[in-house]
């Protein structure tokens, strides 16, 4: 039936299909749909920048306006990937500029971005509106100055957790006076900022909805900014301390009064430096908050955190440090009945952990917050009984990431591995898409994962398992697996090579400090030409003999349509 | 990831100096145990495969991204005092000195500073080649144990180091390192 409609009708229907996965599915139905999707597609997601080339992207989707690119493997976050590994955005920006693509939005994660790239970006796309950089590096505030100066219709500049070299150039002042279109600005990861330029910028951008400041913005300036922008929905405070001088109480009083006028704030973060006695100023907005991120607020102690949280009855997402303690989590459980996502980060990962959280806190959360569907939990210990209780209370997990600070710690009560606990989680949460394991684990947990985790897309394994069987259970059972990352686990060639075709159904596989050998990796590379099998060999080992029996320290393989990459550094060998 | 030139044994946590010496009993309740000790306790763990580094001190563990590591850990301490002064004693020197660990980027940086403080050479060498050097740098950690300098990542070291001592190799052989909770005080430098 659909084939009798003109293309415009199909296009109009496809407009309502927004998720990139659904669009991908649409394009596979028939040649007609492929063609219509191809020319009407505006938003493209590329999960691995080396899976495809910029030229092929442009050839297939000439109408692309919004592009997401991801570079380095996830374990790069934990220093497992050396500097200069790759993930450069330059060739993408150059190709898009050359082909005069009408790029409007660019979102990059774990990529290397240079000032030159930012400069070219700022001058090549007249309608450029949105730049989001997450965990990127390689650029300085000079690059930001180019974006500010040249992107006349910029709506969004969102810098999340990047490593940015800061020059003394007052980049913020490069936004021209005519720039009044800003909706979202996040510079929390910078150390400095030009305060006068900031205040002027906020004053002339009445559409600002999201503003995340850095620690260089003092409380007095925050107060003045909030006066100018009471319409903010998403606020990241910078520094939240008052100096000990005579204007103390006056500033605080003004702040309180101003905050009362900010009735739209629903997301709150920051508190990069904080004097807890100033916190009551924000209690009035706590009532309406749906997202609270205090994971960088190490200056707030457990008891003050608890007082704050008692005001936050509508929270859906909470990111916090483990100094909240189990008792604090019990308060969360009784206050935040709508909680869907909880992330508890470690505040003192190598210390004695007196304030840290345990299984008690998690069980409390699960019984008080049945809507919980996303968890990241760093804790001192975990028991099977607790995990089984959590599984029963919360059958809706989409993401479940548990990190026991001592990575091979067994259940401290029974001294058993945590296989049964994780097994209960995967069995009860039928929609689980992401899972990270820790604690003492045998092959059994992988048997459970293979059997029950039917929707699992991403699995992170560290210091777990006993034999190749573990990895095989996962590869055989998890049909929707896309990303598998394994470190320090005894999986070797036999598991790696059993089903080589599997890896073309996945985005990538990372294995480090496992039992796979050079020979095994070579065999895989030979059999699968559409995989790049990369070995990272950082050690300057003159004795490193290229023997097939040699164990490989780090292997990263991924499917690709464009063969071995040409920008690999000399410590990365792509096997063929 | 591997420490150049050091054997596997160096990265095992044990209460003794590298380069031979007698086996030390590890208290079962002591937190710092090697993976193989734990796995030996469980009958369903049949592997003889070992971690190349102790589990508490593996690179990239706990899995917290480096931006977060730099920006949220020990913030409390940093706010109150951004400095991390620790006492340093050197065998043979009449006075103790103090160094601010937060001022240094890594072990080699610290070694240079110590060499200047005590006007001596060899500390940098001792970090690379503990077995053969004249000096042995050790430090007392948060738990009160004396540890060899250089085993753990720098960030972890500065968080847990309470004091430093540069020992002469000849002294090291008789040095008693005791498990926590023991009555015996040992001849630890004051």
Short description:
The complex is a heterodimer of chains A (576) and B (190). Chain A has 576 residues and is of the alpha/beta class.
Report on the architecture of this protein.
Chain B: One of its GO terms (cellular component) is nucleus. Chain A is α/β, with parallel strands linked by helices. Chain A has 20 helices and 25 strands. In chain A, the strands form three sheets. Chain A has a 21-stranded mixed sheet. Chain A has a two-stranded parallel sheet with strand order 5-7. The two termini of chain A are 47 Å apart. The mean pLDDT of chain A is 94. Mean pLDDT of chain B is 65; it is low at 1-6, 14-56, 75-81 and 177-190. Chain B has a five-stranded mixed sheet with strand order 2-1-5-3-4. By secondary structure, chain B is an alpha+beta fold. At the A-B interface, loops of A face α1, α2, α3 and α6 of B.
Rg of chain B: 17 Å
Query: Which percent bin holds the helix content of chain B?
Result: 25-40%
Oligomer: heterodimer
Query: Tally the helices of chain B: what do you get?
Result: 7
Helical stretch tally of chain A = 20
Spell the H/E element sequence of chain B.
HHHEEHHEEHEH
**Largest beta-sheet characterization of chain A:** 21 strands, mixed
Major sheet characteristics of chain B = 5 strands, mixed
Number of strands of chain A: 25
Structural class of chain B: alpha+beta
* Fraction of residues in β-strands of chain B: 5-15%
Spans of at least 5 consecutive residues with low confidence of chain B: 1-6, 14-56, 75-81, 177-190
Distance between the termini of chain A: 47 Å
Helix content of chain A: 25-40%
Domain F-box (chain A): 5-46
Main location (chain A): nucleus
Pfam families (chain A): F-box_5, LRR_6, Transp_inhibit
Subcellular location (chain A): Nucleus
